[in-house]
Amino acid sequence: MFMTLSMPSHAIVIVIVIIVIIIVTFILLSYIDNQQRLDTPLHKEKYNVAESNAVKNNEQDVMQPILNELEKDNDNFNDNFDSIHPEDISWELIEKFKVDYDDHFQPIVSPWDVSKSWVNSREIFPDVVPELGMVLKSMANEPVIYADIAPRGTQLKLLLVLKGGQKVLFKPKWFERDQVIEGPPYAGQDRHNGEIAAFHLSRILGFRRTPLTVGRYLNLQTEVIPVASSRLLDTFFYKDNDTCFYGKCYYCKGKESGVCAQKTILEGTIVLWISHKMQLYRHPWGRTYIDNKQAKWETDAKFCDKVLQTDMYKLGIRLLDIIDTSVFDYIIGNADRHHYETFHEFPDSMVIMLDNGKSFGNPYHDEYSILAPLYQCCKIRQSTYDQLKMLKNGILSKVLEAVLLFDPISPILNKFHLRSIDRRLHQLLTTIDNCVKEQGMPNVIISDEKLIPEKHVET
Ligand SMILES: Nc1ncnc2c1ncn2[C@@H]1O[C@H](COP(=O)(O)OP(=O)(O)OP(=O)(O)O)[C@@H](O)[C@H]1O
Ligand SMILES: [Mn+2]
């Protein structure tokens, strides 16, 4: 006070200005930090196997009873389904889900307008959709008119514009089909074939919440370089006779992290871009990706009760969508769902099953923690449960295998991966049965009609 009084007035102004600057900087920094927590890719590669085991050991304390149960059940599980039930509906389902990529159907409007018209708040394409082959075929064949780096995310991918103005992502091939990815459940680069299998699985499981996906061989010399942006072009290089590029992404570190074509042909996956504005959320059951730091759900078996207390998840569409997503991720082996996105303009928007690249890495490992939303909440949508039951006893893999045969870069999954999905489906049904035994059918199996769209409060 004394100091203030004795200071000349211009000094007081300077002090006030400095204080204001400090306050504004503080507010700005905490805002940026908040944004970054949502927008910035997390530091996944800090993990190693030992740390992941540490997480697992603790987590197993929480889920030990159910793991014991599953282990007993696994002993009785026989995946030799050669003599399937006489009421085998596989062939009916194959007829329904197979896609005719040679379809000569010529729509009056463009394939891109057709696929855009399919999107609504609860699905990205309809259940019965004769034009699907035509759209997927266009994605696999239409000329590329512009190619750029796709800067968002941690994985190297291209952003392409196809003739007619449609944006798509191109996720390149890194692994051979038989490669087993060891290490933490989110280890390794994207599996481009996993994206394709996940898309068709989402159709067969009745979710239809994944963007349209198809395999494509891309000629980097004739299809990409002539239409590439200069920032993409700058990252092209040659290794022996192969054309390579390293693009730009969180983990793209120049040539050593680049991807190479076989001579000029690069195999990969095309994912149709969805142009609706999306809202990004942290996944309540996301992993921490920080050394020796566990997420709340990994140590608290009653974590779901806390989630249920929040406005956004009080038993409604959103929580059941999260549980559907965990069912889907468990089957495909994706333990990397750190965030999720919804359609901004729809209050009852689905949780979009975007980015399924970290799937089908290890067919011999079932990452049970992916199912935490299901076994901690003990709730599942009736329609999902019915669909899972319908696809048990080997039907799921049989239908998926047949449907995947039609993709331009088939074969997509080897027999070990196909077997793993039947095994995981069996474990899923056992998990649901356990919940029903403990809590009763009406508390576990939630009918879709009961669901009233809720006001979603931003968190
Ligand atoms: N098909 C799509 N349509 C619209 N936006 C998409 C699509 N695919 C991805 N995106 C947007 O781009 C972001 C990054 O894509 P994606 O998650 O596939 O990349 P990634 O490198 O695997 O990311 P991460 O490292 O976070 O897992 C997504 O979070 C989403 O906002
Ligand atoms: Mn990813």
From TrEMBL:
Residues binding ATP, per UniProt: 155, 171, 341, 355
Active site (catalytic residues): 336
Gene Ontology MF: a single term: ATP binding
GO cellular component: Golgi apparatus
TM region positions: 12-32
Residues bound to Mn(2+): 190, 355
Main location, first listed in the record: Golgi
The keyword Nucleotide-binding belongs to this UniProt entry's keyword annotation: yes
Location within or outside the cell: Golgi apparatus
Co-factor(s): Mn(2+)
Chain ranges of the FAM20 C-terminal domain: 236-444
Keyword entries, A-Z: ATP-binding, Disulfide bond, Glycoprotein, Golgi apparatus, Manganese, Membrane, Metal-binding, Nucleotide-binding, Transmembrane, Transmembrane helix
Family of the protein in this entry: Belongs to the FAM20 family.
Name this polypeptide is given: FAM20 C-terminal domain-containing protein
